[in-house]
Amino acid sequence: MEITRTARDDQLDLKLKGRMDAVWSDHVANALTESVRAGYHVIALDMMDVDYLSSAGIRILVLHSRQLNAIQGRLIIARASSAVRSVLKLVGLETRLHVGEDTARVMATAAPERPTQHVALPPAGATAQLFELNPGATLRVQWPGDSAAWLEGTAKDADCENVAFAADTIGLGLGAFASTSDLEGAAFGEFLGAGGAVVCQPADGANKPDYMLLQGALTPTVKVAYGVVCRGGFARLLRFDKGPEQSSLTLSAVIKACLDAANTDAAGIVMLAETASLVGASLQKTPASPPVVTGARNLFAFPEVRDWLSFTAEAAFANSVSLIVGLAATGSRALHPRLLKPLVLTGDICGHFHAAAFPYRPLRKGKVSLAESLEPLFESEHVLGVLHLLNDWRDPNGAGESCFFRGACWCAPLVT
Hints:
By secondary structure, the protein is α+β, with helices and mostly antiparallel strands.
């Protein structure tokens, strides 16, 4: 099987030549998968030189057509040999695969809403699109719990606060899905919540994330030890793409674009992104036990820090999809110094972000809602892990920053 690729605008043309049987269908499947990962959601196949199509080949076409349709893309067979057309007609797929149809006409029925503004990001070739959602919308910030008491080992159950995560609530911190009234019975860990979904990875050594979704009258509720919770709406949606010249975009570059998009020096951000890699740490043990010695303790002192935190020695969760929730502010605005840390070496941008990683699936382009974008992740996939995103600036072998290919960011100015 010979496969020739030709890119034009947002469409990719694949010319196939040979037999699409059980042996060679996998090569076509790999080409289609790579094309979708590269950001092409409209793929036109020229099958004029394909002289045989088996059921294995049909399966590949159907699977990728279904995947692209789910994200408002299309797999189109622009040209087909008589042998291919005959098989597709017999199995009833001629119309579904748009055999012989004009690409522009097919895509006119699925054209996404046009963005309000196109933006060129600082890395060469990287771009972003801005969509207005609710101009004037803001996120009101609250800081439940007492981080100092937990870090010092003097926390009490009274320091916790039950927080309900409705559709208009985002947040992150240390918490637990718990109905018990005591700390000992609760599996505390780092959590993040947005769009009616909450993911928590209990620090019990199992490294197995759990989640709760807003379903009917059930509202996810977290016993928050400490963290940040924001309620309100999103003002803008930013869609970013690394472009053909970059291998990926760093977390700080995306966050800077979000602050600019929200036209503010402090923003609440929810990101859903096709992810190159994540860098950060996961909590291994809940910092609730009393200090061994009298007096204050420093959980972040070496080597004790290794008992509490597991750091990514190298970039993790490569080629995944990540749900990321957090706050960001310019260095001139200190919202809560204990929870906001520098995202860039100069300290010009600070933030606090948690990420939940899922197996890869392409994200729909254009203007999308957060709830609709989250739903398929939890319906058909499992959560790979939760990380508190941190930059590894160790020279020369540090893992650097978390990096992304493309994604969607819902953002709004913060009101404290």
